[in-house]
Design a protein that fits this description.
Helix content: 55-70%
Shape: globular
Strand content: 5-15%
Number of strands: 5
Number of helices: 10
Largest sheet: 5 strands, mixed
Structural class: alpha+beta
Length: 218
């Protein structure tokens, strides 16, 4: 026969377990938060796979544009993107039979960030996307000026007047809006944002070994 002390211990034990479960499963508890994060990731991966043809269509690319392996959303003033660009160049130097499609996701609160995306797209109109993309992610001077004519000359753009006209025209701005809308389907605004048809969505920069391992999974 149980003593009152034992009964009290059982009651206390069950009360503790019940309280712990409530804390873990409350709307902002760790279990609920982790479950929501996992569900959101699965949802993003499904969207990435279903929207893959649209994600890789009609956009500039690095490497072999005929064989898109990864889609990257980039903001040129993003320090993580600038660091990851080094990794991308190293990867493509040793994987020349694949391509990285580049989509624009500038910082919506920074005018110069949008200007840089416009610069990349307008360079693309002259067949110089890779050149401008590399310049914007490795040069620091453009981060401190709005003189896009000077930036274009330093980047080696052939027709600066056409470049400036393109920046003022609505076409390139519409492309940025289109890219932002694609990113919005994934409910993410972080950069770099990487998408693989096989692997789904990866937010944030990767080291070269991590990129090789992530992109080569079956």
């Amino acid at each position: 026969m149980s003593s009152p002390l034992n009964k009290a211990a059982v009651v206390v034990g069950w009360s503790f377990l019940g309280l712990s479960a409530l804390l873990l499963l409350r709307p902002k508890g760790p279990v609920t938060t982790a479950a929501r994060a996992q569900w959101a990731q699965h949802a993003r991966d499904r969207v990435a796979k279903s929207d893959w043809p649209e994600l890789v269509a009609d956009a500039p690319a690095l490497g072999d544009a005929r064989r898109p392996l990864v889609v990257e959303f980039v903001a040129y003033d993003c320090e993580y993107c600038r660091r990851f660009h080094v990794t991308t160049r190293e990867y493509l130097a040793s994987h020349q039979n694949v391509g990285f499609v580049i989509r624009q996701l500038p910082n919506r609160f920074v005018q110069r960030s949008r200007g840089a995306s416009l610069a990349a797209l307008c360079a693309h109109e002259q067949g110089q996307f890779s050149q401008m993309h590399d310049f914007l992610l490795t040069d620091d001077q453009w981060l401190r000026t709005d003189d896009w004519a000077s930036t274009a000359r330093r980047a080696g753009i052939r027709d600066v007047n056409a470049f400036l006209s393109c920046q003022r025209a609505p076409t390139a701005l519409a492309r940025i809006s289109q890219d932002s809308a694609l990113a919005a389907r994934l409910h993410l605004r972080v950069t770099p944002l990487l998408i693989s048809r096989a692997q789904g969505v990866k937010a944030g920069e990767l080291t070269l070994p991590e990129l090789i391992e992530w992109s080569s999974r079956p």
